[in-house]
Structures
1.
Amino acid sequence: MPKIAPRRRRTTLLVWLILVLSAGASAQQAPAAPQPLPPPPQQQPQAVPGPTPPKPATLAEMVAEGSAVVRKGEGTSRSVRRMLDQARKQADIIRVTCLNDKLTQINANLKTAQARLGALREAVDPDRQAHEHTVLSVVGQKLQVLDREAQQCVGQGMYDTGETKVITEIEEDSLLPFEENPSSPPVLLPPSLPTIPPPATGDQ
């Protein structure tokens, strides 16, 4: 059996050692498996700010608005009264009737507004103040409607059609015989009297 020379044996050993060391170094330098990333933190939805509620009116502001309603109602009453006086001077019965009705309603609503304004000034409870203020606003709107309706009252001139002329046409076919010749008067016969038989007697 041939013997391996010592130098060759050392060379083989050295090559084997290098291969072992290279394999160990490669195993140490192998990259580790990537770790999964943590899930992103969930963001809470941000609340959308709603509309800011209106600031409630103060008592002074409500009294000022109520006073304006009363003043405007008084002006409307004076204006409609002047129109009514003018319609009476013109003897326009139709316009007088319309304006008189509107003026009556305006004065009634004006008295209501004046009474509610006094109650508003004396009210202490906020709910009572808000109630009186609401009623005053409604009465003010009613007064505006009545003012517009009074301005639209029309007079009898809208209904005048001027002088009228009536023409009567008679067809000749519908005339009676004596109407064709009016100079000869018709002959009137006396009415025929019914004949009444004599009463029956007992003689046979």
Note: Residues 59-153 form one domain.
2.
Amino acid sequence: MDVVQVEVSTVIDRPIEDVFRFVEDEHNLPRWDDDLIKATKTSDGPIGTGTRFHLDIKPFMGTTEGEGEVVDHQPNDVIELRFDMGKMKTHVHHLFDVQGKSTRFTRRVEVQPEGFLKMMQPLMKGMIQKRNVAYLAKLKSLIESES
């Protein structure tokens, strides 16, 4: 099946530990990802590999719900997530790299549309790219403005 892939990076003027801690906190996700209304942790324990979430999402085509899971969690290195939102399967990699006293944060998104959504695939890459550039700009601003 065809997969739409997008990768966006930014350098955040904060130590890697601060950036990682902010990104892994599900309460912060809707603050910088405008498509996400709410992420609710549905599994017990601290966030790590295997943590599950219920998602309330407002993507470009209306409100929907889905389930997500952390499939890899390496502190200050990677948070890998998989989301199932019906006809849309999404795989997101959040990658963290030290860059001097700052952090290079990279978000790689892979979307696998199914059914009628496959027809929109040619438009998806540009739209997903544009939205993720905006998300990372907002993330950078939020983290850098916090003391």
Note: The CA atoms of residues 8 and 132 lie 7 Å apart.
